[in-house]
Write a structure and sequence with these properties.
By secondary structure, the protein is mostly helical. Helix content is 58%, strand content 3%. The chain has a domain of 76 residues. A two-stranded antiparallel sheet has the order 1-2. It is globular, with a radius of gyration of 15 Å.
Length: 115
């Protein structure tokens, strides 16, 4: 299935007038990373979708892209593509940076570029 068809089939995605809606830059990045890794063959769409459904069911909120990111992180950790400690360390470093600084490079995280 092409990315366009995959996105079109995801009726639950936040949209306005048919266009995808991202309230924050990180949401679009998280969305794109999932699609890029799926398209590259890192995982089957059903594997991600199941984790997304589980994440949404586990929370009583409407923070769709928070659940999207949670499902993505869980999938990457469970497949051994990244260690849980690395996810937590990067999240902590990003949380400590100034709000509005959306560059995420070595000067904001204290680390080199993502590997």
């Amino acid at each position: 299935m092409t990315v366009d068809r995959l996105v079109a089939a995801m009726e639950e995605l936040p949209r306005h007038n048919g266009e995808l809606v991202f309230e924050e830059p990180w949401q679009g990045r998280a969305f794109g990373l999932v699609l890029a890794m799926h398209t590259a063959g890192a995982f089957e769409w059903g594997e991600f979708r199941k984790r997304l459904i589980d994440a949404i069911a586990a929370h009583d909120d409407d923070a769709y892209y928070d659940r999207w990111l949670e499902a993505f992180e869980r999938l990457l950790v469970e497949q051994g593509l990244i260690a849980r400690e690395e996810v937590e360390a990067r999240a902590e470093a990003l949380a400590e940076q100034d709000h509005g600084d959306d560059h995420h490079d070595s000067h904001t995280t204290g680390r080199g570029p993502a590997q």
